[in-house]
Amino acid sequence: MSRAAALMRLQTIDSQIDAHRNRLAEIDRALGQDVDVSAARSALAEVQAALAEGSKTARSFEAEVQSVVAKGKEVETTLYGGKVTHPKELRDLQNDLASLQRRRAALEDKLLEAMVDVESGETAEKAALARLAEAETALQKSHGTLTAERAKIESTLARLAIEREAAEAPIPVTDRELYGTLRQRKRGLAVARLEDGACAACGVAPSSSRAQAVRQENAIIFCGNCERILYAE
Description:
Elements: H1 3-31, H2 35-80, H3 87-168, H4 173-185, E1 191-195, E2 198-199, H5 208-216, E3 229-231
Parallel strand pairs: 1-3
Antiparallel strand pairs: 1-2
């Protein structure tokens, strides 16, 4: 196996390792996030806060109605109890009763509106709870799938580590160092195939003598344009 072929083999394994590690990072981010669940919880909290406020308003109107009803009964008792006989006092009591009745009617209208709002809020709360349950179920299912995929990738990485060690062992130290330096500089692609007479990485065709050397010599030949190691099968 030529020096370039050995480095190409090593690069193929390294590229697979990089891809699997990138996927692991994606999985870890996904496992650490619960965007849909968080959104569903926030929505539920908003609905429940509005429902609590609506219930408080309804209770307030209900208490006012009860207070007005109690006052009305007191006025009626005084008005019709026979103890008050003075015409002016009777008229005042009648006016008070009429005012209380109007107040009661207005409060009952507001109470009805508040109760309708509470009913709507309860419906919204049920819907929000259902959405949260759905999001949590989906998250659990997704986590199960991702966890299984993660375990599979870790197993693959362990196998690739062994393959890499075997592929790297026969490569001279100087070639390893050169490969490592180029791989860092060239974003993971230190070795480029010579395809159809051109460098597959940059597309520039080397001279005929350079191309021939790539195919025939057991030497490290670089692309004159992108400076990657050229490899030909």
